[in-house]
Amino acid sequence: MTFTVCVFDAYGTLFDVAAAARAAAAEPGQEQLAEIWPGLAEDWRRKQLEYSWLRAVMRQHCDFWQVTQDGLDWALEAAGIKGPELRERLLALYWELEAYREVPAMLADLKDRGVATAILSNGTVDMLKAAVQSAGIDGFLDDTLSVESVGIFKPDARVYRLVTERFSCAASQVLFVSSNGWDAAAAAGFGFRVAWVNRTGAPVDRLPARPHHVLDDLSAVPEIAAP
Fold first, then answer.
1. How confident is the model at residue 83 (pLDDT cuts 50, 70, 90)?
2. Nearest 5°: phi and psi at 202?
3. Which of 19, 33, 72, 184 is at 20 to 30 A from 212, Cα to Cα?
4. Can you say whether residue 151 is alpha, beta or left, with left for phi > 0 and alpha for psi between -120 and 50 degrees?
5. Which residue segments constitute the domains of the chain, with CATH numbers given?
6. d(Cα 84, Cα 60) in Å, to the nearest integer?
7. What is the set of active-site residues?
8. What is the pTM of this model?
């Protein structure tokens, strides 16, 4: 099956969300962070997502930059780290997250195969623009779609509908790619064909819908999208 559109989640899928903590930990004077950064990065990401879900349920939307800061504040307090300097450094690095190493070649391959490409993310327009430009992949994307246009976070169906409206296509014509199991399940339930990038070997989430493909990384996406 050949798809007309391939859409990617951003954070954790195209961009390594642990990169900010890892980079800061390697800087001079960050010996304390160097000992704990994997756990800090995990807590930061977990709370960032939890706050997005809770705000959606409570109907108290804010933008993703706010929940990113709130998640970091929780993680820093949990780790017993005080002081504004490290907080500001980590937040600055979040605007420069590294793309996974296979991303540029994978996106270029999709474009060579004639598949439209886009990001669909909880991130704000400014956050996504910065990440895309920092990674040097802006030339491979046809659009970047943010939840801010509908005012609610994933996995609300209104978010996934942004894709079919933007590309004037049926859900079945879209290959959706995400590293988040809950996002993959929700997108499959919406009607997309879904590839879940399971870099950690986690079990499939027990939700009403399941991904159609489970991948170790993004390398196989072009062959799935346009064999």
1. confident
2. -75, 155
3. 19
4. left
5. 5-15+98-225 (3.40.50.1000), 19-94 (1.10.150.240)
6. 27
7. 9
8. 0.96
